[in-house]
Design a protein that fits this description.
By secondary structure, the chain is mainly β. The protein has three helices and 33 strands. It folds into six domains: 9-134, no CATH class; 147-245, Immunoglobulins (Immunoglobulin-like); 256-364, Immunoglobulins (Immunoglobulin-like), CATH 2.60.40.10; 373-467, Immunoglobulin-like (Sandwich); 472-508; 514-565, no CATH class. Mean pLDDT is 88; it is low at 512-519, 521-530 and 561-565.
């Protein structure tokens, strides 16, 4: 067949018991060009041969030949007759089987930058291949691993002498049953395991005696089982969470120190100069108590057990001894002469147990005074802050002659070529606060100087920026035009209406009123006549009752005297 340069997929065959779930293809990354796979031409060869894997995204070698897509790269084979002697070995007297992969299984579900060693897809493919080999049927998976599930304990704290272990279990396959159980425990969260007991397949509980075990918070239980099928398949389960043993008197051992955690800084230290010693103590697998104290000895020979409690006391880095794991340190001036020496460190737990010593040896030198070291913790480089915000600057510093509290600190902020002092010769300061102006500035510089008693200076700088929210976009002139029109147009209509009304009245010809001569009213009737009125039905204006026409609109009142012609 053909040897492709590379392929990008391994594709299963629909309904195949091994690869049927991956008919759409699985990501495949070859370990080298030319080593992707081998395209096959399946042959019966004394049995039945079926393709169960093909390749996809095939690329041919640059010089040929041309390799086709979707060619067989894996097969299942079953011999046409039994082989071996029945009763001898696992498969004696049964047809032989073969599950063949003409590609690297480790390339499944991986990339060039991630081999994905815990791939569940790859594990499932290998598992189905093994289950097919163990199945009675040649066309299906009729065997599976037995299931076991630990139901107790799952977390919690136990202070008694024993713990009841409970579990369930199920076997799969015709005539297959659970054969046995193997119980084990871990006191370090699963890193190491120790046996508890072996039990028959009918057991579903066990009372575990923990009297001889040290207290601790990281215990786990694992139960493994085997079925009685041919071949036997196994399964296992671990408690879902760690649990703690906290028995009275159960902590009899002191804390250990993490390997490599005992160290000195600077290394090598100088005689007469400050040095820091650090270590990490851990009591989780030695009783689970809190670390209560630690000490160090500066000498070449290891201290004697009777010297416990007489060394230089170390402190907890976080300020208090209150956990089963503690980082510890000691800072002081070395009075040792030049030459070789060692530091010996050990720790004590709450019940009073001192743990074993761990040492680190080094050379003490005749050092020269060096400038202080300073490191800015915050802000981060190029960090952005809102304008007008309050910014806190923090830093750490050290020196080989002075304690940090004895160092003098200067701090300032420079913005737009203007410098603002924050600290001036402040002893031991490790922070400063600054309220930023209400400005957007691309580059603001925080500068720090630390000076020791001999005038040596250590400096550090950090650049950051100030930002403001973007102003709202300018309004379009059209907005103002529309607003003006909304006000002006109604006023214009009112004005035009008023002018047209006045013009109409000005053009209306005057009406000539002819009033018939009437005899003078009798004495006493003048007041009544002058005060009599009526309302014009057209303009609803009050006029004199004697008027023939309305003075205001010219309406002629019906039934009134007519002017002479």
């Amino acid at each position: 067949m053909c040897d492709p340069l590379t392929i990008g997929q391994a594709k299963g065959v629909s309904s195949d018991p091994i690869s049927g779930s991956y008919a759409g293809g699985v990501l495949y990354t070859p370990h080298r060009d030319g080593g992707a796979d081998d395209q096959l031409s399946p042959s019966a060869a004394g049995g039945t041969t079926l393709t169960d894997w093909t390749d996809g995204l095939v690329q041919s070698p640059s010089g040929g030949p041309l390799c086709a897509q979707n060619q067989p790269i894996g097969l299942r084979w079953v011999s046409s007759s039994p082989n071996g002697t029945a009763g001898q070995g696992v498969w004696g007297g049964t047809p032989s089987r073969l599950a063949y992969f003409a590609f690297e299984v480790t390339g499944i579900d991986s990339t060039a930058t991630n081999l994905n060693p815990t791939s569940p897809t790859r594990a499932a493919i290998l598992d189905t291949a093994l289950r097919w080999l163990a199945s009675v049927s040649t066309a299906a998976l009729d065997r599976d691993h037995p299931d076991v599930n630990v139901t107790a304990p799952n977390g919690g704290v136990f202070s008694g002498p024993s713990i009841q272990l409970l579990w369930t279990a199920t076997a799969y396959g015709a005539g297959v049953a659970i054969s046995n159980f193997t119980l084990s425990f871990s006191e370090d969260g699963g890193v190491t395991w120790n046996p508890i007991v072996g039990l028959p397949g009918s057991a579903r509980s066990y009372m575990w005696d923990v009297n001889a075990l040290p207290n601790g918070p990281r215990y786990l239980v694992r139960i493994a089982t085997q079925d009685d099928g041919t071949p036997s398949l196994g399964g296992s389960d671990v408690t879902d969470g760690t649990f703690s043993l906290a028995r009275p008197g159960g902590d009899t051992e002191g804390p250990t120190l993490w390997a490599g955690s005992v160290r000195v800084s600077p290394r090598p230290p100088g005689t007469g100069y400050l040095a820091t010693f650090r270590a990490t103590a851990d009591d989780r697998t030695r009783g689970g108590s809190a670390v209560a104290a630690a000490e160090l000895f500066l000498q070449i020979a290891p201290p004697n057990p009777v010297d416990s409690g007489l060394g230089l006391p170390m402190g907890a880095v976080d300020g208090s001894f209150d956990g089963s794991v503690e980082n510890m340190s000691w800072l002081g001036r070395l009075t040792l002469p030049e030459g070789n020496t060692c530091v010996w460190v050990h720790a004590r737990d709450g019940p009073g147990n001192w743990g074993p010593f761990m040492a680190s040896c080094f050379v003490v030198i005749n050092a020269t005074n060096q400038p202080p070291t300073v490191s800015i913790v915050s802000p981060a480089q190029d960090q952005a802050f809102p304008a007008s915000s309050t910014i806190t600057f923090t830093w750490t510093m050290s020196d080989d002659l002075l304690y940090p509290a004895q160092l003098l600190v200067w701090a300032n902020v420079t913005m737009n070529n203007a410098t603002t002092p924050l600290l001036v010769a402040s002893s031991g300061a490790t922070s400063a606060v600054w309220t930023a102006p209400d400005l957007a500035v691309d580059r603001v510089v925080f500068h720090l100087d630390v000076v020791d008693s001999s005038g040596l200076r250590g400096s550090a700088e950090r650049t950051f920026s100030l930002t403001r929210e973007s102003p709202p976009p300018p309004r379009s002139p059209l907005v103002f035009i529309v607003a003006a029109l909304i006000v002006v147009v109604p006023i214009a209509f009112l004005l035009i209406g008023f002018l047209l009304d006045r013009r109409r009245k000005a053009k209306q010809p005057p009406r000539t009123m002819y009033v018939q001569s009437l005899p003078p009213p009798p004495i006493g009737a003048a007041l009544a006549s002058a005060s009599a009125t009526k309302v014009c039905p057209q303009c609803h204006t009050t006029v004199n009752a004697a008027d023939v026409t309305c003075f205001f609109c010219g309406h002629r009142f019906p039934g009134e005297a007519r002017p002479p012609m």
